[in-house]
Amino acid sequence: MNVKIINHSKNDLPSYATEGSAGMDLRANLEQDVTLQPMQRAMIPTGLILELPQGVEAQVRPRSGLSLKRGLTVVNAPGTIDSDYRGYVGILLINLSKEPQIIRHGDRVAQMVIARHERVVWESAEAVSETDRGDGGFGSTGN
Questions:
Q1: Does residue 142 have a pLDDT over 80?
Q2: For residue 43, what are the domain limits?
Q3: Cα pseudo-dihedral 17, 19, 20, 25, rounded to 10
Q4: Number of structural domains in the chain
Q5: Do residues 37 and 29 make contact, with C-beta atoms less than 8 angstroms apart?
Q6: Quick check: is 128 in a domain?
Q7: Which terminus of the chain has a smaller tally of CB atoms within 10 A, N or C?
Q8: What CATH number has the domain bearing residue 27?
Q9: What is the Cα–Cα distance from 115 to 105, expressed in whole angstroms?
Q10: pLDDT digits (tens, 9 = 90+) for 97-118
């Protein structure tokens, strides 16, 4: 799939790290370091603008290593970039660790997965089909 991208950062374009990678790393585009205090959140700019095809979204997800090692994660994970959005891609990071965390220009702060999606047309009904699970939820299927 071809996707138009404008790169106003000094970073390389997002790319796949390995042949099997689903996500591409997104890098911070900063003039100066950003320090996130414990439980503080901030929008980290990427300098990227996308033009996604209709029926496609970009999902912004946490990087597992960043979450494990530094306690940094994406607040609204996964964040959705819609096909009709033409603004800059920003990463909403939060520091869940007990120490301040410094974000520097070029740091890999999130990953982006490009995914197709369907649009729904609701069909009003008086009943839905029965299943073995029924209305059991929130842990009803076991540990």
A1: no
A2: 4-116
A3: 20
A4: 1
A5: no
A6: no
A7: C
A8: 2.70.40.10
A9: 27
A10: 999 999 999 999 999 999 999 9
130 inside domain: no
Burial of 72 (0-12, 13-18, 19+ CB in 10 A): buried
Whether 17 is covered by a domain: the verdict is yes
Residue type, 80: T
Which contacts of 62-67 are long-range, i.e. CB under 8 A and separated by 24 or more positions? 62/110, 62/111, 63/25, 63/108, 63/109, 63/110, 63/111, 66/108, 66/109, 67/96
Residues in the chain: 143
* Structure tokens that stand for 1 in this block: 């799939």
The reply to whether the predicted model has a pTM over 0.70 is yes
The two tokens of residue 4 are 């138009």
Distance between CA atoms of residues 62 and 114, nearest Å: 14
pLDDT single digits (tens) 8-60: 999 999 999 999 999 999 999 999 999 999 999 999 999 999 999 999 999 99
